[in-house]
Amino acid sequence: QKLVDKLENQMAEYDSQLAHIQEELARPELYQSDGGSVLLQLNQQQKKLDADRATIEAEWLDAYQTLEQG
Known about the structure:
The protein has 70 residues and is mainly alpha-helical. It has helices spanning 2-25, 29-32, 36-69.
């Protein structure tokens, strides 16, 4: 159960970070100014977080199934 809780907390943290990046990407001024390097950096961060979260989610599913099978 502790592992499941830990992984759920990690997924929540990734979700929070991804939401922040999405908020930043929604700012119009990012696209109107010379924000190209910032845009690239945000996109790279988003891609890495998405991949890391998917890995954690797969671990969570395995741990949850193990817990359910008891």
